[in-house]
Amino acid sequence: MDMAECTLDGETYLARDFARLDPGAIAEKRRHLICVHAACRGRAFYRGRTRDGKAPCFGSNEHTVECELTGPVSRMAPGADPITREELANLGACVQILLGPREGEDEVHLDTDLPGGLRPSARHTALGPDGPRRALSRRKLLTVLRNLVHVDRFGRSAIEVRVDGFPVLPARRFFVRFADVDPVGHLAQPRGYWGTVVDARSRGRSDHLWLNSGGPEAVSVKIPASEKERVLRQHGVAELEELAGSWAIALGRLEILPSGKQLVVVGAATEVAVLRTA
Which residues contact 142 (CB under 8 A, 6 or more apart)? Predict the structure, then answer.
């Protein structure tokens, strides 16, 4: 997008003009951007000039279907292979999220009732005396995030989600979009919080990494300083500006600071996944 509106000052900016603002103004205003189309007004983001020469731009992951400014967006993470909607949706009745990559391990479908560790194909359904048995899919967190982004029905489904240390819940209860966080209902609740990152900040090597989904009233993800470099490295991020406009998911608990700020606090890099946009 060439233009975006800032709800903080009511001004409409061209990307090149927004880029000329002083850094403090950019840092504040970029969390309050929306699409200028009257039928949309979806939350927008600003991405500054990057080291590889990409020009400053606006974008949005939340255009409405009526919006005329929406365009094709690449949502492939670095090193990821193209996958089809059919493959994305083919998750069986239960999904176990794998925390921590295992060297040389592929994602596989497992039927928990099959003896001997047999590994059926993705379409396998074992038949029991009471009908089809439930298949268990084991998936990395990044793949689960792709499902949430690309297959709307996945996040609204009754597919059972399992994560070590988290309650077993249907997808529609386990996954919570940043915009849908309830500071009362979700307080201290361990969930998979996800949505668009409008900017990322860290004041130095010893500071935490903060992924912000909007202004002061919106949810932010807090990644420990000790895990920051691993998160950036495993997602191929050379500079924080590259994270603007990305999708992110964080497995953690919601905390409310005395100021009212909502935070999802994670303990390890394996509890975060980022799906970068082009």
Answer: 77, 80, 273, 274, 275
Cβ-based neighbours of 61, under 8 Å, separated by 6 or more: 42, 43, 45, 73, 196, 245, 247, 277
Q: Sign of the CA dihedral 150, 154, 156, 160?
A: negative
The token duo for 238 is: 């050379």
Count how many residues are written for the chain: 278
**What are the two backbone dihedrals, phi and then psi, of residue 147, each rounded to the nearest 5 degrees?**
-60, -45
φ, ψ (nearest 5 deg) of residue 117? 70, 25
Neighbours of 219 (CB within 10 A): 24
The CATH number of the domain covering residues in 85-275? 2.40.50.140
- Are 126 and 114 spatial neighbours (Cβ–Cβ below 8 Å)? yes
Q: Tens of pLDDT along 10-28?
A: 999 999 999 999 999 999 9
Q: Spell out the domain ranges in the chain.
A: 3-59, 85-275
Q: What is the pTM of this model?
A: 0.81
Q: Do β-strands 160-162 and 94-98 pair in parallel, antiparallel, or remain unpaired?
A: parallel
Give the residue among 27, 48, 43 at the shortest CA–CA distance from 218.
43
Least confident of 120-129, 200-209, 228-237, 247-256: 120-129
Our separate counts of H helices and E strands in the chain read 7, 20
